[in-house]
């Protein structure tokens, strides 16, 4: 989804956002610098990437402050992704009234309004004397975008006004809020998982490379589905996070095999994840249980035929990234939150992201519900995290 936002009639900003049941990413510009923020709720991590300077900071979600609009806190202080009701704020006391039909970008839209004396936004912040207007396409309309054609009602715009308080219940710090946002390319189509790739944040020596060959010479036109099948097969078997399998590339094929390389990434020490496996642990496990025909102990499903096959090793030994001593792979260490993003920049951007979050919360429930259904099969692979999958940004460095 793309968002164009006009704030106080003085500035226009744009963001691009992607959602999954355990993942969130937003791309935006701050002072002409491109940034990306990724929240991984399975590992409990935030990745903050400055794409111009090639800096990447990693921090625990538990350390994030009021700007983290996609995060809710439980009685025990643990952070989790907000539920659909918490995202959309449609519970008791947040009723919307139907205003009628208007036009947004020349498209007929149904307008809904909610006037609220006070409502919480996230950790330690709220809006007082607020008004929220939502604009959806009319039932039966088909909205075409770069990603899909949506026949169900989709959000077209949101108008927010009120006073934003972000220093406790007494509104010690506040600012006037006036924001009109227009949504483009909204789609419930599942995003390519590679948009959440965090291999950029791994340093040489921290990851391992596997080269494999997959029986078959027809994988169809959808390379993305082949990558997804490989990722799901490997993470299910090895009991590792989805984001630990990265940079899956098809490097060739012949009349018998499809040749693929991928990276196994480490889990940063800031992660809230029980007993994470290192890349070396994964490789040792795979080698220990390699079948007699030199194939992996798990299967993947070919997207073209639906046939389940076992990938096989191209080389038994892992390929180490280039280091000062290429004959051995250094131990795995984690990225830290001190890797080049200044605290001043992070704090300033947090305020910008906070306003973005207010917009996102009004539309994310549609994606959450879609993804929850789509990912039901995958949730079975990680049963001990299923409760978290049902609990659905901003950031601080």
TrEMBL record:
Segments forming domain LolA-like: 7-201
Keyword Lyase: no
Keywords (A to Z) from UniProt: Membrane, Transmembrane, Transmembrane helix
Transmembrane segments: 345-368
Protein name: LolA-like domain-containing protein
């Amino acid at each position: 989804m793309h968002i164009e936002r006009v704030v106080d009639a003085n500035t226009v900003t744009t963001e691009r956002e992607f959602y999954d049941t355990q993942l969130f990413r937003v791309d935006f510009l701050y002072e002409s610098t491109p940034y990306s923020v990724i929240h991984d709720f399975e590992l409990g991590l935030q990745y903050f990437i400055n794409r111009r300077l090639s800096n990447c900071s990693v921090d625990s979600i538990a350390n994030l402050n009021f700007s983290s609009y996609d995060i809710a806190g439980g009685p025990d202080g643990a952070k989790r992704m907000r539920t659909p009701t918490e995202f959309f704020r449609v519970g008791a006391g947040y009723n919307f009234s139907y205003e009628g039909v208007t036009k947004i970008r020349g498209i007929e839209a149904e307008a809904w309004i909610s006037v609220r004396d006070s409502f919480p936004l996230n950790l330690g912040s709220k809006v007082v004397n607020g008004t929220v207007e939502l604009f959806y396409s009319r039932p039966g309309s088909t909205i075409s975008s770069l990603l899909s054609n949506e026949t169900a009602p989709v959000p077209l715009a949101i108008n927010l006004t009120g006073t934003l308080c972000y220093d406790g219940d007494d509104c010690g710090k506040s600012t006037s809020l006036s924001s009109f946002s227009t949504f483009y390319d909204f789609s419930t189509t599942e995003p390519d998982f590679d948009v959440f790739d965090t291999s950029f944040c791994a340093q040489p020596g921290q990851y391992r490379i596997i080269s494999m060959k997959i029986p078959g010479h027809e994988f169809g036109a959808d390379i993305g589905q082949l990558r997804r099948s490989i990722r799901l097969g490997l993470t299910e078997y090895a009991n590792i996070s989805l984001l630990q399998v990265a940079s899956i590339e098809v490097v060739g094929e012949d009349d018998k095999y499809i040749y693929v390389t991928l990276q196994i990434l480490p889990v940063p020490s800031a992660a809230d994840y029980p007993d994470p496996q290192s890349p070396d642990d994964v490789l040792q496990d795979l080698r220990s249980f390699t079948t007699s025909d030199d194939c992996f102990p798990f299967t993947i499903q070919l997207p073209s035929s639906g046939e389940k096959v076992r990938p096989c090793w191209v080389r038994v030994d892992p390929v180490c990234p280039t280091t000062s001593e290429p004959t051995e792979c250094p131990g795995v260490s984690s990225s830290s939150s001190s890797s080049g993003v200044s605290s001043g920049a992070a704090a300033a951007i947090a305020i910008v992201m906070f306003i973005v979050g207010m917009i996102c919360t009004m539309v994310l429930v549609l994606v959450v519900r879609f993804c929850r259904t789509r990912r039901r099969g995958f949730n079975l692979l990680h049963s001990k995290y299923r409760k978290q999958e049902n609990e659905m940004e901003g950031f601080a460095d």
